[in-house]
Amino acid sequence: MPWLSLTSHDDKRIEALKEKFAIIGIPHLVVLEPNGNILIQNGRPDVQKKGIVAFDEWINKLPK
Fold this sequence. Notes:
With 64 residues, the protein is mainly alpha-helical. The chain has 3 helices and 2 strands; from the N terminus they run H-E-E-H-H.
């Protein structure tokens, strides 16, 4: 994957991330702004429906 991800299910950061981003299952894709704010809470359906086009749409949603 070309994006940051946790590669181990026993990573100690998982619980904190699940709580912070309200994640209830995996896989889950949260899209963040450069400052760490949530841009898209659940990006997985976007990717499933639109593929790489979803990335361009997310870029266009970023604050200028």
